[in-house]
Amino acid sequence: MDEMFTVNGKDIKVTFEPDERLLQTLRNRGFTEVKNGCLEGECGACLTLLDDKPVNSCQVLTASVIGREIKTVKGIGTLHEPHIIQDAFAEAGAVQCGFCTPGMVLASFALLKENPNPSETEIKNALDGNLCRCTGYVKIIEAVKLAAKRIRNGEME
């Protein structure tokens, strides 16, 4: 199948198999920030935003996203111009091996877009489904709180 997709705000032409998952389609096109974890929708490493809603890309058929907006972590910030959430993760020490970080950042982004003043319980619920084997989640939750505070203080629109 040949289709046009919008990934991180840019239109790209993609050739894919009818049974191909979005995870494979993205990684095969160089979007390696989308991590290949469990392939069962349990770890959150492959999280992307589909029309600004978090989805595990390993559970989504590529053909089902034609005409929709796909966003990876590189679609919200870059190394040289990081998003407030990415800065907060780095500052709070919420990254260790980094494998889960793209999914955690995108889950946080989706949460804070809807609710810039989440409770700790709401943060935990938003991150549920994103597994981290390094940090124990304390610093990740601190990072989301820090980003939320900065967003509320007007550091981001």
Characterization of the model:
With 157 residues, the protein is of the alpha+beta class. It has 2 domains: 2-75, Ubiquitin-like (UB roll) (Roll), CATH 3.10.20.30; 84-152, [2Fe-2S]-binding domain (DNA polymerase, domain 1), CATH 1.10.150. 34% of the residues lie in helices and 15% in strands. The protein has 5 helices and 5 strands, in the order E-E-H-E-E-E-H-H-H-H. A 5-stranded mixed beta sheet has the order 2-1-5-3-4, with helices on one face. A hairpin with a 2-residue loop joins strand 3 (47-50) and strand 4 (53-56). Helix 2 packs across helix 5 (138-152) and helix 3 (101-114) crosses helix 4 (120-127). The N and C termini lie far apart (38 Å). The model has no long low-confidence stretch (mean pLDDT 94).
Please outline what is shown here.
The chain contains 5 helices and 5 strands; from the N terminus they run E-E-H-E-E-E-H-H-H-H. With 157 residues, the chain is an alpha+beta fold.
CATH architecture of the largest domain: Roll
Summarize the helix and strand pattern as letters. Answer: EEHEEEHHHH
Distance between the termini: 38 Å
Reading side by side through the largest sheet, how are the strands ordered?
A: 2-1-5-3-4
* CATH topology category name of the largest domain: Ubiquitin-like (UB roll)
Number of strands: 5
CATH superfamily of the largest domain: Beta-grasp domain
Q: Uncertain spans, ≥5 residues at pLDDT below 50?
A: none
* Count of separate DSSP helical elements: 5
Radius of gyration: 15 Å
What is the percentage of strand-forming residues? 5-15%
- Which structural class do the helices and strands define? alpha+beta
CATH class of the largest domain: Alpha Beta
Compute the number of structural domains.
Answer: 2
For the sheet with most strands, the description reads:
5 strands, mixed
Helix content: 25-40%
- The shape is globular
- Rounded mean pLDDT is 94
